[in-house]
Design goal:
The protein is built from five helices and 18 strands. With 292 residues, the protein is α+β, with helices and mostly antiparallel strands. It folds into two domains: 117 residues, Rossmann fold (3-Layer(aba) Sandwich), CATH 3.40.50; 149 residues, Exo-inulinase, domain 1 (Jelly Rolls, Sandwich). The strands form four sheets. It has a seven-stranded antiparallel sheet. It is globular and about 50 Å long.
Length: 292
């Protein structure tokens, strides 16, 4: 049974503990670190996710067996016994031994008693083609815009108004000229802000309004932006109508615009004339910002 839990108790934040829902179900075990996991591939996969989130780790794992039974509630309770400030719950949403609502109720009860924030990240792909376009490799998350003139995004759980988002990102494969960056205050697929960098060293700040692109800052070259093969540290601060874009410690732009006041956020990869653009992401941080 599959259910996306993030809208019900997921909120963006940085740091915390990582709770991993194992693949395939089975009997429950707990470990003090990922190095104790029996499955080498699973150990590497969880370590990569932990590196991406930049989070101290409490490793929890369900052993695989032929019964394919999954109940995450014992692991959730164990996580809360560690008294964390924040928990990342990574799951494919398939709880075969318990109703999803029971998981939601457990988390709501424990988080309200302990004042703990929960980030839920759904690990799911709808088809083989989708799996080829996104994933984890060598400790980084990647997106591949396979078709020309395409944009592929990965949601960051939560909704944000005044926020600071930092991420390391860059094009690591494919034809030069791809774009990447952050989507902010997204209301739906036709309405959001877009902060983009290109592998050729330019940046842009734009908005999509009712499906129509409106450039606030057109593509502008900047020496601070590293080109193909390197990751750039992109930081965007959104405070009310004020936005600040910083790359590798250098402020590139300040913008004032009040079209959207709150919404979702996402990472994105985009292609222009040629497809096959791969963008890698690492060290994502999200935290609340004081309004101006």
């Amino acid at each position: 049974m599959r259910q996306d839990l993030s809208p019900q108790f997921g909120r963006g934040h940085a740091g915390g503990a990582l709770l991993a829902d194992g693949n395939g179900g089975g009997s429950y075990k707990e470990f003090s670190s990922f190095t104790e996991l029996d499955d080498e591939g699973e150990r590497a996969r969880m370590a990569e996710i932990a590196a991406l989130m930049g989070a101290p780790v409490i490793a929890m794992h369900w052993d695989r067996d032929w019964t394919a039974v999954t109940d995450p509630i014992p692991a959730i309770k164990l996580a809360f016994r560690q008294k964390p400030e924040l928990v990342f719950l990574l799951t494919d949403g398939e709880f075969t031994a318990v109703e999803p609502q029971s998981v939601i109720n457990t988390v709501k009860t424990l988080s309200s008693k302990n004042n703990v924030m929960i980030n839920t990240i759904i690990l799911d792909s709808t088809n083989e083609n989708e799996q080829e376009q996104r994933g984890l490799a060598e400790g980084r998350y990647y997106l591949i815009a396979r078709q020309p003139q395409s944009l592929l995004s990965q949601a960051i759980p939560g909704r944000y108004d005044n926020v600071v988002i930092e991420v390391e990102a860059g094009q690591t494969d494919g034809p030069a000229g791809g774009a990447y960056g952050l989507i902010l205050r997204q209301r739906d697929s036709s309405n959001f802000y877009y902060v983009g960098l290109t592998s050729q060293g330019s940046y842009s700040f734009a908005r999509l309004v009712s499906g129509q692109w409106q450039e606030i800052i057109p593509w502008t070259p900047a020496e601070a932006i590293l080109k193909v093969g390197y990751l750039n540290r992109l930081r965007v601060e959104a405070r009310g109508k004020q936005f600040k874009v910083t790359v590798n410690g250098q402020v590139l732009a300040t913008v004032e615009d009040g079209t959207f006041d709150t919404g979702a956020a996402a990472l994105f990869a985009a292609s222009f004339d040629q497809g096959g653009v791969r963008i890698d992401f690492d060290n994502l941080s999200v935290w609340a910002a004081a309004p101006n």
